[in-house]
Amino acid sequence: MDLGLQGKWALVCAASKGLGKGCAVALAREGVNVVITARGDAALQATAAELRQAAPGVQVLAVAGDITTPEGRAAALAACPQVDILVNNAGGPPPGDFRDWGREAWLAAVEANMFTPIELMKATVDGMASRGFGRVVNITSSSVKAPIDFLGLSNGARSGLTGFVAGTARQGRLAAAGVTINNILPGTFDTDRLRSGFASVAQKSGQPLEAVMTARRKTVPAGRFGTPEEFGALCAFVCSVHAGYINGQNLLIDGGAYPGTF
Could you give the residue ranges of the DSSP H alpha helices within the chain? Predict the structure, then answer.
């Protein structure tokens, strides 16, 4: 299927590894020029080299910086000639007990997982509307739909973004101009972040790492963890010309782990 994205420009945040990288690879393979950003320059440059090899002919620009800061956002936006596709992504806040979180912890979570994507949308969606095409994909979490007790910071900040998107995506001056805004809610995906979380659990519990991972796999009906590649494929489709009637939605991709009907 031709996704109709040849020659478009995408800004993909936190794209040096994991789900962000999966999205950048999938878009580049569809002929999308990409600006990728992340904090670690070495990993970012390595990913840029991979993208150029995987998708010869597309432009790949790598901008190292912290997307959760005004300076990081300005640098990333300045590198992108025009943002036709925006993939918002940032590392989730740490787990823990809400009794231990002070004001600063909450502000950091909101800054990274709510305010930053809102600021990037504010900077790009009107330009998308003026050109008659735009796609925003926010990578959030399955915890938005089924909150996880020890991820209170993530539950709160990402749910705030979800509420914001629900209203903004339906503004006539955006939706009628060909701009869609959707959230993709990943479940358990095989990423460095997931493995570091398992390593922490294994260390604290005294269990072998593989035992911790096996126990978690058993909670997923698919019997496995998701891959960044299949996440990227969903992202690319949501960004395609074929997905123009999908707007303001929360798209769960979790191997069937969520047990509800709605």
Answer: 18-29, 41-54, 70-79, 103-110, 116-131, 152-168, 172-175, 192-205, 209-217, 228-239
